[in-house]
Amino acid sequence: MALKKSELYSSLWQSCDELRGGMDASQYKDYVLVLLFLKYISDKYAGQPYAPIVIPDGSSFADMVKLKGKTDIGDQINKRIIAPLAAANEQLSQADFPDFNDANKLGSGKEIVDRLTNLISIFQKKELDFSKNRAEGDDILGDAYEYLMRHFATESGKSKGQFYTPAEVSRVMAAILGIHEAQTTNATTVYDPTCGSGSLLLKVAGEADSDITIYGQEKDSTTAQLARMNMILHDRPTATVRPGNTLANPKFLHGDALQTFDFVVANPPFSDKRWTSGLHPDEIGVPADSDSVDQASRNFHRFDGFGVPPAKQGDYAYLLHIVRSMKSTAKGACILPHGVLFRGNAEAAIRRELVKRGILAGIIGLPANLFYGTGIPACIIVLDKEQARERRPIFMIDASSGFMKDGNKNRLRSMDIHKIVDVFKKRIALPGYAREVPFEEIEKNDFNLNLPRYIDSQAKEDIQDIEAHLRGGIPQRDIDALDRYWQVCPSLKQSLFKANRANYLDLAVAPESIKTSIQEHAEFSAFIASLEKHFDAWRNKASTQLKQLDPGFHPKTLIHELSEDLLEHYAATPLIDRYDVYQHLMDFWETTMQDDCYLITQDGWIAKPERILEEITKGKKKGQTVDKGWTCELVPKELVVARYFASEQSELATLQSQLEAATARLAELEEEHSGDDGAFSEMDKVNKAAVTARLKELGIKGRAASPRPPQQPDLLAAAESPATYGSDTPTDEANALLAYLESSEEETALKKQIKQAETELDALALDHYAKLTSDDIKTLVVDDKWLAALATAIHGETDRISQSLTHRVNDLAERYAQPLPELTTRVGDLESKVSQHLERMGFAWQ
Description:
Blueprint: H1 5-17, H2 25-45, H3 61-65, H4 73-88, H5 103-106, H6 110-122, H7 140-156, H8 167-176, E1 189-192, H9 199-207, E2 213-218, H10 221-233, E3 240-243, E4 253-254, E5 257-258, E6 261-266, H11 281-284, H12 315-324, E7 326-337, H13 346-357, E8 360-365, E9 378-384, E10 394-398, E11 404-406, E12 409-411, H14 414-426, E13 434-437, H15 439-444, H16 466-471, E14 474-475, H17 476-480, H18 483-488, H19 492-496, E15 497-501, E16 504-507, H20 514-519, H21 522-547, H22 555-569, H23 578-603, E17 610-615, E18 625-631, H24 637-644, H25 646-672, H26 688-697, H27 717-720, H28 732-768, H29 774-815, H30 820-840
Parallel strand pairs: 1-2, 1-6, 2-3, 6-7, 8-10
Antiparallel strand pairs: 4-5, 7-9, 8-9, 10-13, 11-12, 14-16, 15-16, 17-18
Helix pairs in contact: 1-7, 2-7, 2-10, 8-9, 8-14, 14-23, 21-29, 22-23, 23-29, 24-28, 25-28, 26-28
């Protein structure tokens, strides 16, 4: 069976539970990710000549498995696995790996043996055989690594989550650099001076049409090692990542100067208050301090011509390092806090110089709480030396409102990413979102780049019309503001509104009829029908494309082409936001479709049911396996039943409806007769046994006849006919008890029928899988599963059109339904009635 992404992720996350107990997330991530790395390179490169990673004999994951249960397992992993591996590969260093014999982190004695043994066992699972379960060209393992790092960053807390840049932000930065459109070669270089785990570098490199050369530096040596492993897992084993403080000790030099690159990206620590540590005093303009300043550090002219950033704010120190590291034709992007846009003094002088030289090409404001080290909002500063010129305009985007909640963090959605990239690259002006700001306007604002000065992203205030409140009528301007609806349905406005006086209209239909008047209007109905045809056209084309997929296709390429085609298909569709439609596809891809595609690309169009076998973990039967039925991941049972056994499913649904009715009748009887004097008042628990016992006490044995067929229920019969066994005179209590007993017997009979029908239907469906042809499976998956789900989601967008218009018209109608004079008159009438009532009660109201 092929490896599903979601199963891979969950299996790997289980490994974290083996270490969670006594260790911080920022520590146990190192062990889990190293195990993932060792398993992967062993599966992929062990025994292969000329492999980019050498696996020495005796140092593979299989050799690590042999250490399970040994009392010195941690020490042996260090000596027999990691040490030889590091010695055989120059890009690896044993000092960068965590210590697998650290008693402070892993425990001692039996604890460390059990912990490491269990951890290794998790990676032994057959579904984690990476040599057989990897779609060539798709970074399923690299994505798993990213997934784990994102979770580790979330759990590591405020001070330790900075090793990871959210993948969504990395995607934005990679796309806006334009590397995809550039003519890249192996000589093209990309550099990140604060690369963390390398995710940002990898996203940029992934945008290129060819392999490019990757350079990165990371202050924390352990994180630098994670980055190197990340590169290898993403098939970038030649990437160069070096540990060290970039500002004090840059590792990439050309002689005495900083090395320059074609593309530079960074997510440096926000407002680093210790950025001067280790810098030469001549560079930062402070007295020498032998305890904190390395006198041997050289001046790399990063601040020449710009000025020195303030000692307690390191944002511009990193930004100017990036500027100095860019070639004369280079492009760059850096994530910084919003303060760099408006803070004064030394930072204002640097900002002014960047704008005047034309290096600063764009600013993209991001939502708050995206990053793992802080909750403050940040922005992307876009740099471009190739197009730099004096008095250059700056393209600004305020994307602060486009995000979704994801636990305790915010996250950019696929639609947010695509919109930012589209608008920036095409320089599209959108009111309240983006515009190109001329140099002269920036100069008038004294080079303050705070986004609200240039983009008003606040929602427009809904203006209250005083005259309308005084004299009635709906303001014409409010109705005209709905012009996008009237353009699609020109006569709909005349159907909903009628003239009142100049610039004011009245509602032409009853308030309760607004919704139906809109939905049943001929033009609106025709428009909705056209939207359905519009989707059907895309669905038919997509269905043909998807059914032609052969094993070995690249799922990431597929979803890119499919989503771009859908986005383009809805580009000119009125009243529908194409990015909303796009998001529906991307959401479905994330939850369902990508797993299906990874199954298909590795196994083909095969729908083979599998038994669900669960191992008992507790009690006397611990270790035994229980059969929980069967399942089929690619083609779930409900799809087969719906297409091939609809009549049987309908009969089962009828039985289930009858069962619900019988169960409801039991609940009604219990509620009706549970009072102090009710038939069930003295029962601790109302059930068949208690009711039967009470009937016996009354001398009534109950009905001898079997319950009526469910197809002809008569639930009130017992209550309407006399109790005939042991009593000549019917009683209310007896009739209630007999009614309950009959409904209970009917419920039991229906449950038995349903269980039998479900078993028969289950067997029919299971047997039918063997009869499915490849074309049958394609129809079930593509048409009944994928496109049917997407159709439901996108039709929800069309429903929202009528809902939005109905809601707005209702709001306006209710707001101005009663003018002030009418309200005043009504208040007076009510006041008069209250006074009259008080007088009749003997109270004088003054």
